[in-house]
Design brief:
Chain lengths: 130, 130
DNA sequence: TATATCACTATACTTTTGTATACCGGTATA
DNA sequence: TATACCGGTATACAAAAGTATAGTGATATA
């Protein structure tokens, strides 16, 4: 139960909290990190495999997002000494544990859709134009 | 344990899941929505109050983000018939329940910092330049 | 009379994020 | 010989997100 100490600590060291939340936001930021992590939850993948799995992503973005995730300690990149090289991406322990964040996001989203669409009974929620 | 039904359902209706997660992402997208919601968790606020609470935000962004949050059913806007007008913003039920998402984000972030900084024992995690 | 507050909006701009397209050297397959 | 795969990078551009600054009309305070 972190809940109970929340406010108590928040008064004393909000900086720690802000940094922690920023870390989480960095993992979620942008259009592609969520689907990439989701794909890697099914196991280690190679670059092109990810590219096929995460539909519509360009190699440029995939490369960049993987670099970000690696820098943030979410993904581990391993290069094998084959010819040509084999590169494998997999989630770190932290990356795997991020699933619990994704789970509540999904859970809340489903709940929210049910409640809100029923409540407002009108146009769909705001979405990005495709 | 959502875990067990996850994959089963994922195979059948992934669209629902994608939409739900998108909703959650919309609530988190951008620089300001998290702090705005966090502020509103302490109770209803007026426009300028929020502006003071959420440091460094410009009225333009505050206005825009509040409109987004309202459209997404997170915030309720009430105009009172005073002169000059009084406008109050408060979280909807969905908005309040969003706290559980924020809680795991915080929790995961703290955990991740502990593990990762200890693990890598090097430069800090990637952060935006100020 | 001058200044401040309320809840914003308008305009112009910069920065960040994402896309499109082509390309690299080396290897395996047809 | 031609093509495709591997794991990306280079360049140029478009779109989205965010900032800076000023201003609105009415009312209350000094």
């Amino acid at each position: 139960m972190i809940k109970n100490i929340d406010l108590e600590i928040l008064d004393r060291c909000p900086d720690t909290f802000v940094l922690a939340v920023n870390d989480t936001m960095n993992v979620l930021s942008g259009k592609w990190k969520f689907p990439i992590i989701a794909s890697l939850l099914f196991g280690k993948k190679r670059f092109k495999e990810l590219g096929r799995d995460v539909t519509k992503i360009t190699p440029r973005m995939l490369s960049k997002e993987l670099r970000d995730l690696e820098m943030n300690g979410i993904v581990k990149r391993t290069v094998y000494n084959t010819v040509p090289v084999t590169v494998e991406y997999e989630l770190t322990a932290s990356g795997k544990s991020f699933k619990k964040v994704m789970d509540v996001m999904l859970e809340w989203g489903l709940e929210h859709r049910k409640i809100t669409l029923h409540d407002l009974e009108k146009s769909p929620l705001q979405t990005k134009a495709s």
